[in-house]
Each structure stands twice: as C-alpha cells, then as structure tokens.
Amino acid sequence: MVKIGNIELGEFPLLLAPMEDVSDPPFRRLCKMHGADMLYSEFISSEGLIRDAIKSKMKLDIFDYERPVGIQIFGGDEEAMAMSAKIVETVKPDVLDINFGCPVKKVVTKGAGAGVLKDVDLMIRLTKAVIDSTSLPVTVKTRLGWDDSSINIDEVAERLQDVGVKALSIHGRTRAQLYKGEADWTHIARVKENPRITMPIFGNGDIDTPEKALEYRNKYGVDGIMIGRAAIGYPWIFNEVKHFFKTGEHLDPPTIADRVEAAKNHLIWSTEWKGERLGIMEMRRHYTNYFKGIPHFKEYRQKLVTNDNLEELYGVFDAILENFKNVIKA
User: Fold this and answer.
1) Where does FMN bind (predicted)?
2) Calpha distance 116→319 (Å, rounded)
3) Per the annotation, does 48 bind a ligand?
C-alpha cells in the first residue's frame, strides 16, 4: 500500500500531473471518473496568493469528489511560500505539493520552479519553510537537475526527505531539455533503489500507452506513475493502464459517443466553474485532443473553436454524433 502521510493510494497509484491551464477542476473531474487515483491542481504562485490575485485564489477550488487531491504552489521566497502554505491549508486539500520542476522561462527567471535546481540549499530552505507552516503532508515535484552536467536528483531526494517531504515525483528530464528528447528514468530508478529513501517515488515523463506504463513500472521499480500530457483530451488513459496491468489486454478505445460525452461534460463543467464566456474560450484548446485522428473532422473542429454560443456548441456535438457514429476507433 502506497501512502503519503496517512493517505492511502492503493498498491500502484496513477497520479494526474499538475499542468498549467489544464489541471483545473473540470479536467480533474474527468480524470477522476476515468481512474486517476490522485489529482493535483494547476501550480499556484505563492506571490499571487499573498497578493490575493483572483486567478491564484480561483485555483484553490477543490471538491470532495476529487479526493485525494493536492494543491501545488511555487515560488522563490521563503516567507511568501510559508504564508501561501497557511492559505492553502484553509481549503483543506489532502496534500500540499511544491513545484521545483516547471521549466518555463517566466517561472525560472524568478528563481522558482526548476530554477531552484541550481541552488539546492535554497530548495531545502523553501521546503522547510512550507513544512514548518502547515500540518498537511508536503510533497515535491521536480526534475533530474538543471542540465546534463548538473544532474543532482540523488542529493535532492535525500535532503528533501531529511526535512520531512512525504513523497517525491520526478520528471525524467533536466530543465535544459524542457519537453524535448526522451525522459531518462534510470535516474529515477536509482533514487528509488537508494536504501536511504523510504518516501514514495513517483515517475513522470513520456507515459502515453498502457504498454509503456507496465514496462516502466517493472523496469524502474517506482511506487506509482504520474501522467500528464497523455491525459489531455484522453482521460481514458488511467483506466486503460489499470486494465492492462490486471489483464494484459486493452480496453476498447473510446467511441465517438464517449469522446463527445467527455468533451461536452468538460465544456459544461468549465462554464459552470469559470462562467460561460471564459469556459467556452478556454475549452477551445482541448477539442483537438478529444477528436484527434478522426478523418474529415476539420469542419467540425473549426466550429468548436470559433463558436461562442453554448447551445450552438451543443448542436455541433449532436452533429458530430450523427455524422461520425460509425467511426469506432479514431
């Protein structure tokens, strides 16, 4: 049984990665429905929380049906991280996660996210400031190191555990790689095999099929897998992986009706949570993934990403169902 603090996650949990502009409550709800064992929020700026920024505060929304759910924060200032931890605790997530892995320039240049990989002492001070400010279990998501010449995940893992971190998710790339090349899980396996490490180690990076999930589980010995980009527009990945683990067989792929239902629910929940206009606008980035690989779909995709009327969008979904009902596999 894998546990974060007192939170039981099952024998081999599948976690939804925190993704900016993706891992909001509507998307998390879909992933939970389709088998995700643990959910994480989008990352939230500690500075934004302290300033009472509306966008940052909105990201604190969590719902009981999501549990167990973690809220992820980032920042480069100890006091701000400590104060934001206290704010996060008021909404009662199951876990507070710290982002030391985001490679985006605007985050890194502020000395946050993966930028902290260049200063492990600062990383530990930031982590301790958070742990000392909350009773929540604190976890961390990070990368292998800044670049190939400075891979320091072994030291990072030991020192994070020593100050009280309860679980570590490792993306198998350096900051310099961004999302290019292949994720190297051999470093993740080495951390897991370290006899000093007792906290759960979750692997992240490039898991996009049930076969790869099984191969990496067996080959690298991690305690669970965190899935990110492969779940965008395809929340079925979680149950597909679980079914493959149990049976060695594939679930039938989602039908057009399944895809329409998921996209429509995502739209409905987005408008309920964000308001109609913003919900419609921010759903547009998801449609390509929901209907990926379907032939002759361009006309409908264009309607989905240009229409700003909710009822008319429902009509587009109905038309997709009618005109593509014989397309079983995309």
Assistant:
1) 72, 141, 171, 228-229
2) 49
3) no
- If DSSP codes are grouped into helix, strand and coil, which group holds residue 171? strand
Which segments in the chain show pLDDT lower than 70? 53-54, 102-106, 108-111, 113-114, 176-178, 328-330
The residues carrying an active-site annotation are 102
DSSP state of 1: -
Q: Which residues pair with 143 in a beta bridge?
A: 171
Q: Is 171 annotated as a binding residue?
A: yes
> Running DSSP on this structure, what letter comes out for residue 9?
-
DSSP 95-119: EEEEEE----HHHHTTT-GGGGGG-
Q: What is the largest CA-CA distance in the chain?
A: 59
217 is in an annotated binding site: no
pTM of the model: 0.91
- Own/partner contacts of 323-326, CB < 8 Å, gap of 24 or more, are 324/256, 324/294, 324/297, 325/256, 325/257
